[in-house]
Amino acid sequence: MDLTHSAEDEAVRNEIRTWLEENLSGDFAGLRGRGGPGREHEAFDERVAWDRHLAAAGWTCLGWPEGHGGRGLGLIQKVIFHEEYAKANAPARVGHIGEELLGPTLIAYGTEEQKQRFLPGIRNVTELWCQGYSEPGAGSDLASVSTRARLEGDSWILDGQKVWTSLAHVADWCFVVARTEPDSKRHAGLSYLLVPMDQPGVEVRPIDQLTGTSEFNEIFFDGARTDASLVVGEPGEGWKVAMATLGFERGVSTIGQQVGFRRELDGVVAMAHENGAIEDPVIRDGLVRARMGLEVMRLNALRTLAGSSTGADEGPAASIAKLVWATWHRSLGELAMEVAGAPSLVADAPPYDLDPWQRLFLFARADTIYGGSNEIQRNIISERVLGLPREPRP
Q: What cofactors are annotated for this protein (predicted)?
């Protein structure tokens, strides 16, 4: 793993750093730090405008091939972008699901017609997407999905329910894993469909979270329709396509995520100095361990990304990375509460206004669940890496 940067890499760093300094000003100055986990509702329309501003300047879809509207940047340069974006405390992106998940999936598996129809809207942030994977009876076990779709004439007809769907209430489209072959089991008989959200037969219900916000949702499909041509890959091969999307989900943006983690940890350390908690040897030991864990996480992420760029099997490595960062971030929330002490037990203002550390503590509980729970990640590691017996299947 070569961590050195070329002159070209540093030129990209200087370009994006300068651009962010010049553009996170004026109408966009107040967006710094807005919209993070548990705060996706913050300044949403303004963040859409910011994303479109990024697109107009060519700072979206950096790794996409130039022929599909991207910049064709390599791994190191994409990492640099996400590092600088996080260091600038720029606002959370609203087009992440389309840009980082669906876009690369369409480039790899979509038809030319699908690419021409959907990639421009993703790149320009004129169409927002959500991910229709988990269900009440199929959370991390995606192969157990029961949402069904049947082909009638020139349309797929969908019936079923999805849950924990991030930002479904603002999305224009949803990519849905549905069972399209009657009586099929597990991984077989699934298809990957692109479904419009604004239509009869689609109902979105918000899920109230511990943070008091509702960026997660339930989606109910009751006779919802999508065009017969809007299946990505071949019908019945949805598992392969869905797994490819999950691989893209754990890409270079995780490096930027870790810069955000470092900022959070620095804030906890500063709080410990301000309120005297740093004098407690147990808390001081916890802060040191958190710093060490963050550095290990960064190096492991770079190693994983380097392996994926050479074609190595990243499935188990991605599971290790997810398990590490999710557990670390949850622990950071707990450490923040210890540092804050008794005031952490009281809302910042009535009726339920949380301070940043309370929000971190509560929302980070979800980190070990979404994107594949810790239990599932441990199963993958034990079975595929350690060769232990498989967990009994129902």
A: FAD
Set 249, 274, 279, 334: catalytic member: 249
Spatial distance between the Cα atoms of 332 and 258, rounded to a whole number of angstroms:
12
Burial class (CB in 10 A: 0-12, 13-18, 19+), 310: exposed
Q: Which domains occur in the chain, in start order? A: 7-94 (1.10.540.10), 129-237 (2.40.110.10), 250-385 (1.20.140.10)
pLDDT of residue 250: 60
Q: Is 249 a catalytic residue?
A: yes
For residues 157 and 201, give the distance between their C-alpha atoms in angstroms, rounded to a whole number. 10
With beta carbons less than 8 A apart as the criterion, state whether 142 and 177 touch. Answer: yes
Comparing 44-53, 158-167, 244-253, the range with the smallest average pLDDT is: 244-253
The CA distances from residue 302 to 245, 246, 250, 305, 326, in Å, are 20, 18, 12, 5, 17
How many CA atoms, within 13 angstroms, populate the side-chain half-sphere of residue 288?
Answer: 7
Cα 125 to Cα 49, 51, 73, 79, 318, distances in angstroms = 9, 7, 19, 21, 28
Q: Check if the beta carbon of residue 16 is closer than 8 Å to that of residue 59.
A: yes
| CA pair distance 147, 159, nearest whole angstrom | 6
The helix/strand/coil state of 135 is strand
- Given this model, what pLDDT does residue 253 score? 59
232 with 131: CB under 8 angstroms? no
Specify the pTM: 0.84
Q: What is the pLDDT of residues 144-167, one digit of tens each?
A: 788 999 999 999 999 999 998 889
